């Protein structure tokens, strides 16, 4: 049994008062995380003794007909203390300066030809994104930037000898630099050390910059643990680097006081233990997610995952669709790191749960995506996907390809992929925006100006009805029987038209095929 929070208690007291005036319909509440339904008692629809069913959409808690269940699960009790998570989350990879301040020089490698050349983007656009990433971090500023051609961005020697000298000269001549950001997925430990030795400042790659951003935005235990896990490969590289350096000076391979382990081996073992601890905590969270998912399924609320490239407007769109004031869209890359669920209503009053997800980024190293796989796993189990695109962005096509590639790697079921709705957002920023052809599953909106939302809600409803196999039916019920209360319990009642003369009602209902089968068995 869970203790109710003060806020939830006050909602219940409000509800109790609402009973006095209750109607047998969904109450339109201003607490979007609570799903409230007043169920008429069996047999007598005029009675005021309604049963109250409240489901908290934010957590695993389910309050049903006076009983509050769920909430404190075994996983909660066994799960790590906050202080333990904080300890694991403490910065392990040094950021190079105190107070996290950096004056950054950005180098963008440019592959001009060959199979490694990127065709959907340009070095300038990639550089612009790198500037965006740096500016996302408080106290980090871009001092200067440079595009430099290369044939082998993934090799240890990224730049040819001549270009490397030009770059080194430029970095040395620019005053006040505290870090260099080389915009490649991952630098090899060797290159990182070579660059740092040569330039005398901290060197970052895309992986380490994105991790810094994640660090700043992490709020929940899960996000913090996932980031700590994603940091392990960086710690391993650093360890290798340090010991390669010590070896050169003849000190790395010494055994420690009869333990039979060298210092390097001890450090490696500690890192392994750290990784195992984080993985097992994340596994517990994964199980908890499974539990949450099965509870969501049992509550029969369809789940709609909203995904897309970072900063495309996912959070803004969900806020517009649900009016959930908890949501805080920000003009920042990776503002959302934690999956949150928000209830919204479709035109027929059907409640759906919108899942806000972490944004995608091109060339994000696999290890980083893997660390967030538990979070992304939710996407697979949705009833519908909405792919939001910032259609005003110069790289919108490239972003779409990236998102679709990540989805491919996540092995999303074909049926979910084929029913996915593509939403073109930020259309207000384009003067000559042409809506896509009607035969494609594309809809245009401006989440910020709340344009195009009705059409989107209707499309969501249509797809949900298809994907969940639900039926929208008009059913005639006898008010003196249990039929209406049964429908309230087992399905979504959208509308009730009472015929006072013959004591019947025409009920519009959204109902699963299985539930309708049970209804017919019971009542016809
Ligand atoms: N002009 C305009 N701006 C928008 C629109 N939708 C979102 N934005 C802005 O785009 C920025 C990012 O919005 P978010 O909703 O936080 O984007 P997100 O996709 O959730 O971003 P991450 O969580 O960081 O991946 C914010 O400054 C929003 O105000 C739109 O329709 N028009
Ligand atoms: Mg967001």
Automatic annotation (TrEMBL):
Keyword Ubl conjugation appears in the UniProt entry: no
Recorded GO CC terms: cytoplasm
Keyword terms: GTP-binding, Magnesium, Metal-binding, Nucleotide-binding
GO molecular function list: GTP binding; metal ion binding; ribosome binding
Coiled coil residues, start to end: none
Domain Hflx-type G residue range list: 302-468
PANTHER family documented for this protein: GTP-BINDING PROTEIN 6-RELATED (PTHR10229:SF0), GTP-BINDING PROTEIN HFLX (PTHR10229)
NCBIfam families cross-referenced by the UniProt entry: GTP_HflX
Annotated protein name in UniProt: Putative GTP-binding protein 6
Organism: Solea senegalensis (Senegalese sole)
């Amino acid at each position: 049994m869970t203790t109710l929070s003060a806020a939830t208690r006050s909602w219940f007291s409000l509800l109790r008062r609402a009973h006095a005036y209750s109607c047998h319909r969904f109450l339109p509440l201003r607490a979007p995380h609570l799903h409230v339904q007043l169920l008429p008692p069996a047999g007598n629809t005029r009675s005021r003794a309604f049963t109250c069913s409240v489901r908290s959409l934010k957590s695993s808690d389910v309050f049903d007909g006076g009983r509050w269940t769920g909430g404190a699960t075994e996983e909660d009790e066994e799960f790590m203390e906050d202080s333990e998570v904080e300890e694991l989350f403490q910065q392990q990879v040094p950021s190079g300066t105190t107070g996290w301040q950096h004056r950054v020089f950005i180098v963008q490698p440019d592959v001009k030809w060959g199979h490694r050349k990127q065709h959907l983007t340009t070095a300038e656009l990639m550089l612009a994104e790198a500037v965006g990433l740096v500016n996302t971090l408080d106290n980090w500023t871009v001092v200067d930037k440079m595009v430099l051609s290369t044939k082998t961005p993934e090799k240890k020697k990224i730049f040819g000898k001549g270009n490397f000298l030009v770059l080194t000269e430029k970095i040395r001549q620019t005053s006040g630099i505290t870090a260099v950001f080389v915009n490649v997925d991952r630098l090899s430990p060797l290159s990182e050390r070579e660059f740092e030795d040569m330039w005398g400042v901290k060197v970052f790659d895309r992986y380490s910059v994105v991790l810094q951003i994640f660090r700043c935005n992490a709020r929940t235990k899960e996000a913090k643990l996932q980031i700590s896990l994603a940091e392990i490969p960086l710690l391993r590289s650093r360890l290798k680097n340090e010991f390669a350096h010590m070896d050169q000076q003849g000190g790395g391979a010494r055994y420690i006081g009869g333990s039979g382990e060298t210092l390097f081996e001890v450090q490696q073992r500690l890192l392994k233990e750290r990784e195992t601890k984080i993985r097992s905590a994340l596994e517990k969270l994964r199980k908890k997610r499974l539990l949450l998912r099965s509870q969501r399924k049992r509550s029969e609320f369809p789940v709609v995952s909203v995904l897309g490239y970072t900063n495309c407007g996912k959070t803004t769109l969900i806020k517009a669709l649900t009016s959930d004031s908890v949501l805080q869209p920000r003009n920042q890359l990776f503002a959302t790191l934690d999956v949150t669920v928000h209830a919204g209503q479709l035109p027929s009053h059907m409640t759906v749960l919108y899942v806000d997800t972490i944004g995608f980024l091109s060339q994000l190293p696999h290890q980083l995506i893997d660390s967030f796989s538990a979070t992304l796993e939710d996407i697979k189990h949705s009833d519908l996907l909405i792919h939001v695109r910032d259609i005003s962005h110069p790289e919108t096509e490239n972003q779409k390809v990236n998102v679709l590639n990540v989805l491919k790697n996540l092995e999303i079921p074909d049926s979910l992929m084929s029913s996915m709705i593509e939403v073109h957002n930020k259309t207000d920023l384009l003067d000559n925006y042409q809506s896509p052809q009607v035969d494609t599953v594309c809809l245009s909106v401006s989440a910020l100006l709340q344009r195009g939302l009705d059409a989107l809600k209707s499309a969501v409803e249509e797809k949900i009805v298809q994907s969940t196999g639900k039926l929208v039916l008009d059913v005639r019920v006898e008010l003196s029987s249990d039929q209406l209360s049964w429908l309230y319990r087992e399905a979504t009642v959208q509308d009730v038209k009472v015929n006072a003369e013959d004591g019947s009602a025409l009920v519009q209902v959204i109902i699963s095929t299985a539930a309708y089968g049970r209804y017919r068995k019971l009542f016809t």
